[in-house]
């Protein structure tokens, strides 16, 4: 596809140090299992999505907060190495950098517990400064691992500036209320969809936005022009699904920023990228570059 656009992707989101262990199987409640290896790497949904957008070829800026500690320096170094503008990441001297405790089994399934740390110190002033130059054609990515009031403020600011707002509402809120008021595209998984609305068309009506539901190995459903389109997933051997959703979202935004106005074209690319990511271990380390998208996905009307 020929590049026809050159807008930017802004990410407001969490910056965490991922403390990851690999086990043969996930433990049951109250059970102890032995890990086969462990690692600490840069992560967080904000960082992961920013890296995905940058590797897909979009000029990318991240806005967030980290602590004045080794984990914070790890994150800042990792983002800078990806050619991401991380100058709008604020250092919080009296808080620890956020952490994600991740357990991954031999089948690629995972459990994740997040300790917010410095992410909870993100403020509206960070948003006002960080989004001061966002404008029409740009895209803003949001999640809910930072304070919900700040996320709302960011969506409102970007919307008023004419940017497209994409939200991944995870962790899923107890009540959405007016959370989606300034959101153009909602990206949810099956669990989040079930909690928020039950079905994709209901959520689209409630939120007045385009809804994309990721279905793992079954692909993606998208509300589009009054109907629902389905995009098939790649047939791959998944070994770690940790960053699949973040890879999908980052690629979706990047494709809309620098490649195409067509949502389904962007979804196709995002599906391919997520399909590559699940064949690799880790979060940021699993995210592919644009030239690595290899398998072919297909779109069609959903007949359900």
Walk me through the structure.
The protein is of the alpha/beta class and 304 residues long. The chain has a domain at 9-14 and 45-67 and 84-95 and 120-279: 3-Layer(aba) Sandwich (UDP-N-acetylmuramoyl-L-alanine:D-glutamate ligase). The chain has helices spanning 45-55, 70-81, 124-130, 148-160, 190-196, 200-207, 244-258, 263-277; strands spanning 9-12, 16-22, 37-43, 60-67, 85-92, 98-104, 110-115, 139-142, 164-167, 185-189, 210-214, 220-224, 227-231, 299-301. The chain has a ten-stranded mixed sheet, sandwiched between helices. A four-stranded mixed sheet has the order 3-2-6-7. Helix 1 packs across helix 7 (244-258) and helix 7 (244-258) packs antiparallel against helix 8. The radius of gyration is 18 Å and the shape is globular. The two termini are 31 Å apart. The model is unreliable at 296-304 (pLDDT under 50).
Give a brief outline of the structure.
With about 300 residues, the protein is an alpha/beta fold.
Give the strand tally: 14
Measured between the Cα atoms of the first and last residue, the distance is 31 Å
Helical residue percent band: 25-40%
The ordered H/E elements are EEEHEHEEEHEHEEHHEEEHHE
Rg of Cα set: 18 Å
And the CATH topology of the domain at 9-14 and 45-67 and 84-95 and 120-279? UDP-N-acetylmuramoyl-L-alanine:D-glutamate ligase
The whole-number mean of residue pLDDT values reads 90
Classified in CATH, the superfamily of the domain at 9-14 and 45-67 and 84-95 and 120-279 is Ribokinase
Multimeric state: single chain
Secondary-structure class: alpha/beta
Domain Carbohydrate kinase PfkB: 8-288
Pathway: Carbohydrate metabolism; D-ribose degradation; D-ribose 5-phosphate from beta-D-ribopyranose: step 2/2
GO molecular function, one term: ATP binding
Subcellular location: Cytoplasm
């Amino acid at each position: 596809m020929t590049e026809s656009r050159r807008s930017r992707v802004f990410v407001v989101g969490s910056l965490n140090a991922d403390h990851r262990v690999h086990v043969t199987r996930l433990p049951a409640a109250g059970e102890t299992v032995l890990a086969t290896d462990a690692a600490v790497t840069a992560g967080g949904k904000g960082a992961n999505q920013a890296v995905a957008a940058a590797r897909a070829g979009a000029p990318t800026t991240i806005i967030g907060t980290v602590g004045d500690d080794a984990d914070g320096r790890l994150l800042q170094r990792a983002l800078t190495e990806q050619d991401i503008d991380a100058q709008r990441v604020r250092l919080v001297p009296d808080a620890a950098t956020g952490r994600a405790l991740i357990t991954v089994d031999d089948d690629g399934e995972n459990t994740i517990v997040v300790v917010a740390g410095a992410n909870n110190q993100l403020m509206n002033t960070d948003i006002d400064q960080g989004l001061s130059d966002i404008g029409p054609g740009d895209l803003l990515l949001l999640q809910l691992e930072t304070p919900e009031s700040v996320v709302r403020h960011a969506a409102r600011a970007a919307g008023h500036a004419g940017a497209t707002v994409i939200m991944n509402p995870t962790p899923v809120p107890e009540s959405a209320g007016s959370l989606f008021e300034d959101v153009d595209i909602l990206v949810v998984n099956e669990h989040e969809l079930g909690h928020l609305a039950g079905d994709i068309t209901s959520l689209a009506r409630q939120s007045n936005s385009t809804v994309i539901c990721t279905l793992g190995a079954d692909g993606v459903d998208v509300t589009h022009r009054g109907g629902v389109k389905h995009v098939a997933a790649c047939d791959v051997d998944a070994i770690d699904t940790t960053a699949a959703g973040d890879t999908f979202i980052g690629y979706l935004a990047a494709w809309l920023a620098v490649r195409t106005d067509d949502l389904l074209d962007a979804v196709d690319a995002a599906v391919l990228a997520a399909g590559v990511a699940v064949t690799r271990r880790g979060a940021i380390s699993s995210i592919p570059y644009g030239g690595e998208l290899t398998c072919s996905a297909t779109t069609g009307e959903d007949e359900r």
